[in-house]
Design a protein that fits this description.
By secondary structure, this protein is of the alpha+beta class. The protein has 5 helices and 6 strands, in the order ααββααββαββ. α4 runs antiparallel to α5. It is flat and about 105 Å long.
């Protein structure tokens, strides 16, 4: 919007007054609307929440991950270590009420990881079988976890951690989940201090 001033308003003081009037022109209807009925103003989510309600329902998930690759002669090589940690923060009420959403967010993020196909089930041993002629064949089982096993483990670890902090009397609870290359080493632990 361009403000066109008459010639008689060319001095600096008149310009400041004119700008102030234009600003008031746009702000006054908004002020009256918000003062009139605060409950009629809707947030983007479709509801009005007090600051205390919003804090009680707030959960934050922060991911920290590391993957190492080498590039040699234009070929990418995965260097055998990766790990992802998720720090989940909130009140015990917000964590419990958002448990399904937390699990879904972590599973969805983890399933998009390029390293998901390299997660090992644990210590896998070889098995051998003998046939009737006395020859022995050695088979190597698949050492890698399938997506169903990975998702089941994430769900179980996160759910157990949220259940374990349900009775804590702390303003903010931090749960840290460590998901690395071996599914047997995965863990989610309470990182908060209990002040009670």
């Amino acid at each position: 919007m361009k403000l066109i001033l008459p010639i008689e308003m060319s001095n600096a003081r008149m310009k400041v007054i004119a700008v102030f009037v234009v600003i008031l022109y746009f702000m006054v209807p908004t002020l009256f609307l918000s003062l009139n009925d605060s409950t009629s103003m809707k947030m983007a989510s479709g509801s009005v929440q007090s600051a205390d309600d919003a804090a009680a329902n707030f959960v934050r998930i922060v991911k920290d991950s590391m993957t190492t690759y080498n590039i040699l002669n234009n070929e990418t090589e995965f260097v055998g270590f990766f790990d992802a940690s998720y720090t989940i923060s909130g009140t015990n009420e917000s964590l419990k009420s958002s448990e399904n959403a937390i699990i879904s967010a972590i599973r969805e993020d983890f399933n998009k990881s390029p390293t998901i196909g390299y997660i090992k089930i644990g210590n896998v041993s070889t098995s051998s079988t003998s046939d009737s002629q006395g020859s022995t064949s050695v088979t190597l089982p698949n050492p890698f976890a399938d997506s169903a096993t990975i998702n089941q483990s994430i769900s179980q670890k996160v759910s157990n951690a949220i259940d374990s902090v349900e009775s804590l009397n702390a303003p903010i609870i931090d749960i840290k989940c460590e998901f690395n290359m071996n599914i047997e080493d995965w863990q989610c632990d309470n990182q908060s201090l209990n002040p009670s």
